Amino acid sequence: MASNQPGGGPTRNFNLPLRPSNPAGQPSQLPRRKLVDLFGRAGFRWAQGPNILCRDERDKRVVQAFVAAGIALAKPAVETAMADMFRAARQMAEQCDLQPPTTTPQFIGHVLATSPLVGHLRESIGIELFCAIREARLDWKANPTYPFDRPAPSPLAQAVDEFDAAAGSRISALELELFGWAGAWAEEEDEAAPETVEELQRQHKQELQQQQQQEEQEREQEQQQQQQDGEAFRATVEEQQRRERILLQLIQNYRDQLPEEAMAPDAEMEEGEVEEGEVEEDEDGDIEMEDV
């Protein structure tokens, strides 16, 4: 409702309730932001096309993960979060976490586990995102073009450079290629990304439940294994003790069967008896060796 006041146009009556932006029962649409629009182009050469990753669905899932993790859909917030991820990767690489038998995909998975995206983004998509950011920076540095990263590289570009200086030589392109050949890049080809906040929350809840069930199964298997190991150890100890008892009984039986003379101490030598190897003198003073 509006009211006319002297000397002015209609004014809004602020006592009336405002119309809700999301009426009850209506799904809340996820933000329609493209992943490529959340990254700066200065100092990076992103892949040609509307997507950063191999498919649009995977780009959508990254954007949804940002929303679920509480990262604002703005370049400064997204680039800060990604720069923190590459700084964590550099620290982990300096601590020799990128050494055989750890593969490159496994290492990046460990990095993602420390980022805000953990629990909100599937590991294979996170690995592809990590590689896409790094490759975009390396491609631009190989042939710098406009827009340039002047007067200084962005925090994300600097974080990628520092990681690459510390561990770039240990990143195996072959391992990543094999990881992609194994189907990691296409594991969700038939699964569309959710379009609403409710769908995203429901999917996230299901994934958490599945993860909890898997962890519970792993704990049960570990407990069963520990129980089996304990039973096997007790059986080994009991078998060892049984063998020791049998051996002691055999020794005792053997001793019981020996004659008493064999068990008695050696009788004293008769007077004049010469021990083996002992010498004595004859009447002429010659020394004779007692025969053995």
From TrEMBL:
Listed Gly residues bias regions: 1-10
Domain of life assignment: Eukaryota
Annotated spans, Disordered: 1-30, 189-239, 257-292
Biased composition (Acidic residues): 189-198, 267-292
Protein name stated in the entry: Uncharacterized protein
The organism of origin for this protein: Pleurostoma richardsiae
Lineage of the species this protein comes from: Eukaryota, Fungi, Dikarya, Ascomycota, Pezizomycotina
